[in-house]
Amino acid sequence: MISHINILFPQIVLQNLIICTLVFYTVLYLAYFICFIVLSLDSLDERGPFDFKTQPSWSNKKYLANLISLETTFLVSSILFVLVVEEWIWDYGCTVAVIHITVTSVVNMEFPVMAHWWMSIGIGLTAMISGGEILAYHLYKNNFIYPDLEDF
Predict the structure, then answer these.
(1) pTM for the model
(2) Which residues cross the membrane (predicted)?
């Protein structure tokens, strides 16, 4: 029985990670498309959600679309991650953020070094983890597995 669980566990984690990644990018593109419409941008850039080179300015609509869509994605994804994985939101959130950083680097063929982009990733990830873990606790507090600290 235990060997069956050990084989099944990594598959479930990988399946949940794929689902969370797909949820993240679906929400990211939907949020970016909504920002495109609301902010009346000139052209829809399919690489827009991965743009870290746009100079930050509150009057730059392209920057606002990128920022708003990214932060909205982190918040909405945290709610959806709770429904998918129920707990360990911080782990899935951090892993999806690393995947996003990797994809962004590959799409732009350059590692992001812009401080404003890293700040938006950090703020969004913090909001995702905090909101997701609080929501998961309130929804599933009777199902949480608490570690036995006496073994440590």
Answers:
(1) 0.84
(2) 12-39, 63-85, 92-111, 117-140
